[in-house]
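Revision sheet: structure tokens.
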Amino acid sequence: MTRPAPSFARALAAALVVATLAAGCADQGTPSRPDRAPSGAAASASAKRRPVDSQLVAFLSKARAAHHSGDLAESQGELELATRHVQVIVTGPLPPPGPESSEVLADAYARLADLKSRVGKFDDATRDVDRGLDHAKGTTHFRGHLFEVRGLVEERRMKALEAKGDAEGAERARLAALGAFEEAIRIQDEVIKALLPAPAPSAP
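Predicted:
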């Protein structure tokens, strides 16, 4: 069995760890100048930022380690064990809410839903998709990916129901899968369009 490729969010987590550590080292290694020292609200914000950054770095590093452990288990076909490894990302202590942590949580819930649906836990997988969507409310790649996973969950449910001879239930799952895939495509189209360069102004 091939090792699963790391997702976009896991690659993002790795980059954020390096960037945040580098920023922290640069901040600590540069002596402050009296004429540039923050005061008032700026000083308070600076004092609050450092512990939050440390928590975020720790959380992202933990998430990477959990995903690597999940990869190792998944590569051996141990999907239940992989699920337990990834579960620690969403059930352990969390840093203060922020875009980076929300993206990592959304990605973790998407992977949990994928893993659980592969062992037939379709209702649990659906709940994980819903939990992930709570962390990906905007029009982002992460929200689109969660709808893609919802479609996979329903497609797998459809096949399981077909194997049991439940044609009516399988048809409901098929329609749900199609709807989720269409929503994933719509969201990702919006993400792509938002990133396209603005058209050049026409000549007078």
